[in-house]
Structure formats: structure tokens, C-alpha cells
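Practice problem: predict the structure.
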Amino acid sequence: MRVVSWNLLRRVGAGVGDVAELVRRRHPDLLLLQEATEEVTALPSLVGGHFFRHPMQGRIYGLAAWSPHPLPPTTALRLPASALPGRVPPRVAQIVRFRGVCFANVHLSHGQFLNRWQLRHIAGALQGPAAIIGDFNAVGPIILPDFEDVGPRRRTHKASNVISLRLDRCMARELHCARKEVLEKGPSDHHPIVLDLAVASEASGQQPLHAPLSRFGNAFREALKQRV
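Answer:
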């Protein structure tokens, strides 16, 4: 399945027309958006499909997911927040269940301790094959038990038009990434990322680990019967 993620830069960045053009050019099975304003809810009127959005408390923007395929309603997972005065309102992750995979669409906090804490909170809430995708606001490597950084390694954002950073990432569990790409950023200040993902056991054509063990057990029992 093809997954695209893009931070739109709220009102002054990419608009719904830009998002529709991205859909037409890249044909994602699942599109995850950050800093999506109310305007972006018009996307199905331009390209069809199914759309869900979760506004961020106290902000004009939020997280959104679109697919040309039917989607169950997405849910919002409240994330750990800083108790310091003056901090932004609590953030959420948008949980999307699609084709046997649990996706978390994220726009994490800027604090490097806090966004790692948020990642661990999200990982603990996801079951089975899973991916955390979006704007991590994280600098440097991320260590998340059972998850692997499978996203593109190119930089996706230039802070103050000076420092290039790889903020847009994908951490995956039990998934294989066959292809990854960073696209042109267009009117946003973030580049979209594209990933072609598959459940690892399906991608390799292998049976789950318990299957060969079960066959071995049956053969062992048959051998015992023949000796008796």
C-alpha cells in the first residue's frame, strides 16, 4: 500500500487544491496530513474518497486522513503534554486502522524529551503491524523498542530557511518498506514523504513463525508413534 504524509503549514502553506493535485499525481492508498485546516475537509469534493479530521485543541489546524478506499472512523489518542505554563495545548495522534495495519498520524511536540515520551505512549497503544508517520519534530536518532525507522533519509524541512532537518519520519513494526521518497515541498515548508509498505510476513511470502514450528511438532509426534 502507498502511504503519503505531508505537513501543510496551516493557512499560509499548501491548500486543498495542492493536496488534491498530490493525490492525482501519486495515487496514495492512504494520505496523512498535519496542520490541516477546516478548508481541507473539502478534499472529497475534489477527488472523492473518505476523509476524517481531528482538530488540535486551541488551534485552527489538526490531523487528517484521506483514502480512496473505505475507512473505519479514525480516533484521537491524547498524548503526554508539558505542564509548564505557556506551552501549546495537548496534542493527539490520529489512529487509522487500514488493511490490517494500525497507523498513527502524528504532529509531535518540539521538546526532544517530550516527543520521545509521546512516541513511546503511541507505540504502547498500537497493536500488531503498525506505523507511526508524520511530523516528529525530532532531531537525531530515535530508539523505539520493536519499531524501525523505515522512512527516507533525506531532509524534509529547513528551519528558518537555514538548518535542514529530517522531521518527517516513519517508525514501523512488522512492516516492510519497498520504496521511500521525499517529494518537492511545493507551497508548504515541509516536503511530503511517500512510502510503499506491506505487512512483513506477506511481503516475504513466509508463513508466521508458529506455522513451521507447528509442522515440526507434528512430525516429531509421528516419529514417536512409529518407534512405539
